[in-house]
Amino acid sequence: MNSTAIKPAWWTPGDWNAFFGFGTNILVNLLTLTGLLTFVVKVPSEIVFGRILPATGLMLCLSTIYYAWLAYRLAQRTGRTDVCALPSGISVPHMFVVTFVIMLPIAIRTGDPIKGWEAGLTWVFIQSFVLILGGFAGPLIRKITPRAALLGALAGVSITFISMRPALEMFMTPTIGVVCFAVILASWFGGVRYFKGMPAGLVAIAVGIVIAWGSAAAGHSVAGMSVDKLTQSFATFGFSLPLPAFGHVFSGFEFLGVILVTAIPFGIYDLVEALDNVESAAAAGDDFPTTRVLCADGVVSLIGCLLGNPFINAVYIGHPGWKAMGGRIGYSAATGVMVIVLAWFGVIAVLMALIPVVAISPILLYIGMLIGSQAFQETPHRHAPAVVLAIIPNIASWGKSQIDNALGAAGTNAVTVGMDKLEGVGVLYHGLSLVGGGAILGGLILGAMAAFIIDRAFYRAAGFAAAGAVLTFFGFMHGEAVGINQTPGVVLAYLGVAAVLYGCAVSERGKVAVQSRESVAETAHAAS
User: Fold this and answer.
1) What are 47-86's pLDDT values in tens digits?
2) Do the Cβ atoms of 284 and 84 come closer than 8 Å?
């Protein structure tokens, strides 16, 4: 068959399921970032709804349509009808990092939320170039790194930062969250079809709305729904186009010292996470060009920040999940169109007041479950220990973030409380900091070392251990910030591991050489 003659379908019945699932995923992130900007950083509503959201909407639209086009080209080239577009959107971990590490502290220090917003724009500006430049090294990294390390590091993110919060929210409001979760599981894992083929994501949201507003009508609101909030939300209606924000981007450079501490390592985090997600898609059957994907993330993020969006774009975890529920090409493009309509017409605030967020949480938990399991399903069984090892740094990072947030809410921090006191009650805070620093890079390095050791490829394992020493020396792993030799003990440990593994490689090569000579001698003796 001549694949060039194939004209892939832009829309299939399964795209409805993926559209409502992925669309609600994007929606919950838009609602979350709107809440962070409005209630945490306290950015004026005219900036949030008139400048930031329109820019965010355009960036997301460009990203989702581009990835739909990439999927179309892949389907056309291969003649396949099951190609699924890569999902993309606002990077969720970075959403909280840029808010609480960059924008909020600077807004508090200066007494001006606009300054915090400008610092966020500069943060994304720098990260965008890290992604664009890293895109050209991406294929090599993907080629030399075991799949267990790439997918294991990704599983760590999905289990902690993607799955845990939705799971907790569901059980905090179980009458909505757990019931909606059952609706999702029954369809997407159990194969149950709802009335006239209605998508499970839409059914779950509808059920959540009915329960929430039914409870509110009975005087027992379970999700903070109220008619007053809904009425007030209509004040944001209007039409706002994104406007250039070049001056605001470059104003943020006055905080460059603070920004570089996190922008460069998180840019590298984005690079590795994107590699993981491309590998995840390849494991599900869709092999996309790595450099194009990474560069696209950087370019659309750059466009977004120059128009006023302080959040980075990223290829999302979850491609196998959307593909499994029937998503192909159209769901991605349709989501982009939906987002731009919601953002440009000021509808986000109305949706915040209408839909209980806990009704959307089960969709995120489903994605986390699927990606976590993929790391074990799509790698050799013998590499399962390597996958577990790759997950651990993200568990440490998540645990440390919970402790930091709890202590911060109490007006203190770990240093003030004292490491001895924390260790006395079993909280190894310093250990969490070391293991969780640069978690996705740490997981990748540790997972790769373990996978190569299992395969007795000791030279390669030693190479990754040496790379771990270099990355740690410059503060990209096992440290609080970028800097020279901040954790010398860990650097020396990696060098020691590299030396041990190199010795194992030399020893193995010597044994092979001896066995080869013995085999030749035996053959010659037999011949004589």
Assistant:
1) 999 999 999 999 999 999 999 999 999 999 988 999 999 9
2) yes
Q: What angle do CA 361, 364, 369 make, to 5 degrees?
A: 125
Report phi then psi at 313, rounded to 5: -90, 150
Q: DSSP letters of 255-307?
A: GHHHHHHHHHHHHHHHHHHHHHHHHHHHHTT----HHHHHHHHHHHHHHHHHT
Q: What are the DSSP calls for 169-191, one per residue?
A: HHHHSHHHHHHHHHHHHHHHTT-
Bridge partners of 315, per DSSP, are 88
Q: State how far the Cα of 159 lies from the Cα of 398, in Å rounded to an integer.
A: 10
Own/partner contacts of 34-41, CB < 8 Å, gap of 24 or more, are 34/348, 34/349, 34/352, 35/352, 36/95, 36/96, 36/99, 37/99, 37/117, 40/99, 40/100, 40/104, 41/99, 41/103, 41/104, 41/107, 41/113, 41/116, 41/117
Q: Three-state SS for 313?
A: strand
pTM: 0.71
Burial class (CB within 10 angstroms; exposed 0-12, middle 13-18, buried 19+) of 359: buried
**Average pLDDT, integer, range 315-330:** 86
Residue with tokens 């757990």: 178
- What is the distance between the alpha carbons of residues 348 and 342, in angstroms, rounded to a whole number? 6
Q: Where are the domains of the chain?
A: 11-379, 384-527
Lookup: tokens for 273: 């996470």
Contact between residue 358 and residue 179 where contact means Cβ atoms under 8 Å apart? no
Report, in this order, helix, strand and coil percent for the chain, each rounded to 5. 75, 0, 20
Residues 6 or more apart whose CB falls under 8 angstroms from that of 482 comprise 260, 261, 264, 265, 474, 475, 476
Share of the chain above pLDDT 70, in %: 93
Adjacent-strand bridge partners of 90: 313
Burial bucket for residue 56 (CB in 10 Å: 0-12, 13-18, 19+):
buried
Tokens 């400048």, residue located: 51
* Single-letter amino acid code for the residue at 102: I
User: Residues with Cβ < 8 Å from 63, sequence gap 6 or more?
Assistant: 88, 89, 296, 297, 300, 313, 336
Q: How far apart are CA 153 and CA 275, in angstroms?
A: 11
Cα–Cα distances (Å) from 126 to 133, 260, 271, 301, 349, in that order, read 11, 8, 13, 10, 30
Q: What is the pLDDT of residues 379-435, one digit of tens each?
A: 899 999 999 999 999 999 999 989 988 898 888 999 999 999 999 999 999 999 999
* Structure tokens belonging to residue 166: 């939705």
Distance in angstroms (rounded) separating the CA atoms of residues 347 and 235: 10
- Can you tell me the distance from the alpha carbon of 490 to that of 469, in angstroms, rounded to the nearest whole number? 8
